[in-house]
Amino acid sequence: MVSTKPTSTTHSRLAPLSPGGPTDSRAARARSEPMAVVALGGARYDVVVRGGTAYTVDLDVGTCDCPDHTYRGRRCKHLRRVAIDVTAGRVPAPGERDAACADCGAPCFVAAAAPDPVYCEDCTLDPGDLVRDRERGDVLAVVETMSARARDVAVGDHTVATHPTNDGYDPDDVVVEACYPLRDPTPQRLRERGVRSYAFPRGRLARLPR
Length: 210
Ligand SMILES: [Zn+2]
Ligand SMILES: [Zn+2]
Hints:
Blueprint: H1 11-14, H2 22-32, E1 35-41, E2 44-49, E3 54-58, E4 63-64, H3 67-72, H4 77-87, E5 96-100, E6 107-111, E7 130-133, E8 139-149, E9 154-155, E10 158-159, E11 174-179, H5 187-193, E12 197-201, E13 205-207
Antiparallel strand pairs: 1-2, 2-3, 3-4, 5-6, 7-8, 7-13, 8-11, 9-10, 11-12
The structure holds zinc ion (2 copies).
C-alpha cells in the first residue's frame, strides 16, 4: 500500500513560533517580575510594580490602566499577573473577600456577601464528621452544617443563640445539626430511624481528626 503521508512538512518551518515574541515575553514577565497584587474588592486589583507605581486592573472588563493596555490594547503583564495570582489562590477571586477562619484562624477566601464568622474548608463540618461538644464533652456525628445562623434557628421556645446551654457563643455562628454517632447520618436516614438530632452553634463543637 502506498502511503499518502506527506514526506515534507516545510510549511511548519516557515513561521516558527518565536519564544521571544511579544506575547511570550509578556507572559514570562507576568511571572518573573516582582509585582504585588492587592485586591480592592469586586473585580478590581492594584498591581504595584518596582518603583512603587500601581496600576489598576479590572478582571470583569479585562482592563488595566497601564500604557501597554491603554494605548496598545495589549493583554499586559499586570492583567496576566492578577489572573495568575487568582488561579494560585494568592488573592481573592472577583466576588470573594479575604477572611480568617473562626476556628483555626487560617486565612481563607469567601463570597464577598458571606457574613462572619466564616470557616475554612478544613473546619467546615461535613456529614459524618465527628465532633466533641465543648460543653458536655460528648462525641457527636455531624448531620449537616446549615447555612442558617444561630439567631435564626428555633429550638422550642428559644433560638439556638438564646438557648441557655449556648450562652456565650456567637449568635451569628452557623448552626450545625449533629446526633449521637450513627453510620452514615443523613437527614433522610435520621428521619427513617427516628434518631434525634440537635442543633449547635458551630463554635460549640470541636472537630475531631478525620
Ligand atoms: Zn497593565
Ligand atoms: Zn479553619
